[in-house]
Amino acid sequence: MQNYRKSNFKNLTLVVILIIAQIQAQDFNYINKGSDWTGTCLSGSLQSPIDISDVQGSCDNTMNLTMQLSNQNLSTQILKSQVLSSTAPANQYWSYLYASNLDGVISGYQSNYFSIHSPAENYLNGSQADVELQILHTINPNFAQTAPSSSTEPITQYAIVSIMFSVSDSSTSTFFSSYDPTKASAQAASAPQISLNMTQALSSLDLTSSYYLYQGSLTIPPCTESVNWYVYSAVQPITSAQLSNISIFFKGDLQFAKGAGNNRPLQSVNGRTIKKGNIQCEEQFIHFFSFFVIYTFLNFFVCKML
């Protein structure tokens, strides 16, 4: 079993490497907004991104999302192709993640890669943010196994933590102060080395704040449908100047997809379950309130009898 897990993990890591290589080789583009992408991108039923709605979502206080960001200064490069992206050094990770799936089964993941899309790909209640940071996690080999018999969902091989940013000229993004897109290069050979501390860069994000969970896919070819999406509902600030440093590569560049940005269009939800975590569920509040009223009434009644 241990050898199987190691082999499976190597295969998953290889897939991530191939994804990164494909992005850098620019084997796909956004000129037709993904309508010319083939394979699972065309035929899949669990495609991402989607418009995440509170109406569709169901509250679940049993869900778990624990992300530990690296507190080390890691050396990396900002590569610009179809996305802005960065890879952690060998045997180093941007973050570790322990999270439950739709059935409540907890798995462990680690991330050595993240990418940036502008404008955002996933929507929140019909609203599109200016930027979306997607931190791609690969399942830890200790969790790369068959789901328990009680689970109706398979163990997903990837987990993407999504963080939204929208312009607020009263606040500066700590992430894009640390991660400067003006240092991006299309070639690794010419890209300067930068130092990035994820804990410091994302210090403005409350990792215990509310989020949405749904099962979907990668938003770029091969659009693999083995991804749990964890999308934070709190939108982070970014100044217009910081946004310009990103959009100049995509939405602000008429030579790039005719200035349409590097976001895949919304895909059909197809009746998927969307759960909300790290919030007080209304049903549980009602049950607590009802218990409190009954408890108060009984105390009052008993006191009257004495």
Automatic annotation (TrEMBL):
Residues 1-25 form the signal peptide. Residues 26-278 form the Alpha-carbonic anhydrase domain. The keyword Transcription regulation does not apply. InterPro entries: CA_dom, CA_dom_sf, Carbonic_anhydrase_a-class. Keywords: Membrane, Signal, Transmembrane, Transmembrane helix. The chain crosses the membrane at residues 285-303. GO terms for molecular function: carbonate dehydratase activity; zinc ion binding. GO terms for biological process: one-carbon metabolic process. SUPFAM superfamilies: Carbonic anhydrase (SSF51069). PANTHER family: CARBONIC ANHYDRASE, CHROMOSOME UNDETERMINED SCAFFOLD_53, WHOLE GENOME SHOTGUN SEQUENCE. This is Eukaryotic-type carbonate dehydratase.
